[in-house]
Design brief:
Radius of gyration: 24 Å
Structural class: alpha+beta
Number of domains: 2
Number of helices: 5
Shape: elongated
Helix content: 40-55%
Amino acid sequence: MRCPFCSEENSRVIDSRSTDNNQTIRRRRECSCCQKRFTTYEKYEKIPLFVRKSDGSKELFSEEKILSGLYKACEKRPVSQQKLENLVQEIKSELLNMMEQEVSSHQIGNLVMKKLKKIDQVAYVRFASVYREFKDVESFKEELDKLLSEEQEVGDV
């Protein structure tokens, strides 16, 4: 790091601290030539995540859209706002860890349903009914039957 006072390239780090929820590192440095101190900030480069929608269009990934859908699914359910916000962060982390710049809305919907199912089954069914666009009562019943059979398998173990 070049010193802003004398342009010397050699400096030593005196102190390092994380800031902004561990998104930035603040470093206090001292120039080896003029001994003046200065502060630098390091941020990782964020690569935007795009969502490929079912109609073929693309848009930037939006945490707010997922959170909005979760709020609707969990309306009048005993699920805290903090739990939903944590769920969105888990989903975002998983998507970013896939190291893809583009994911399908189908992948996101399935990931949301998988995680929501563990938190609240009624909210899961609500979310699934909108996401999967059930055409009739029979397809809705099939999803409920699948959920109930999985619940019985867990109970039998």
